[in-house]
What does this fold into?
Amino acid sequence: MPTVKHATLLLVSLLMSTSVYAQSSASGMSHHGSGASHMSGDMKHEEMKHGDMKHESANASKMPFDHQFLDTMSMHHAHGIQMAQLAQERATHDELKQMAKKMHDDQQEDIKKMQAMKEQWYAGKGDAMNMQMPGMKESLQSHDKNMEKLKAAKDEQFDTMFVAMMSKHHTDGRKMANAALKKAEHQDVKEMAKKIADSQKKDNAEMAAMQKEWKQAKK
Ligand SMILES: [Cu+2]
It folds into this structure.
């Protein structure tokens, strides 16, 4: 399926744009290693340089809403994946590690599907990442700083910080998903938005329950 392959390349370019890619084991990514040479696709690389990531595509707000949603949520998810990847290595609680793996895989799967939809309806139309979408401005802007803080966190402090950050990340994601439930033109996009809103709500409830148990165990 060429669309999925394309989507995977986009994901790789999203992940490669940050330092966590270089520092993590990049598990599951290495088999796409040859991708970089033909990564001429949608994501302009100069927009994606380390540190000063520009999360805005030119004229994004003039693009169709669904196009904006697919690209902006993909970027949001790519950030979630980076956090989850770190937690798979660094979490001290096993149940959090397992959950991080699930969040990583879920979001990767969503990105593939969203980028396949983008190919189907908006091929050749460029990128439409729009930071003005609900919940996104703060979420996308704070990502690099959050990653630095997470990397510096020690032991159990990492777990608590991760839960706080991922919960916030999911809450912001749900704001955009809820907007898509109302505004999306394509039924497939609405269904994806519903799936994201539901699964992130469930994740947040699970993380809150975990944290409660950790606190009680300490008493
Ligand atoms: Cu997301």
Summary: The chain has one domain: 64-218.
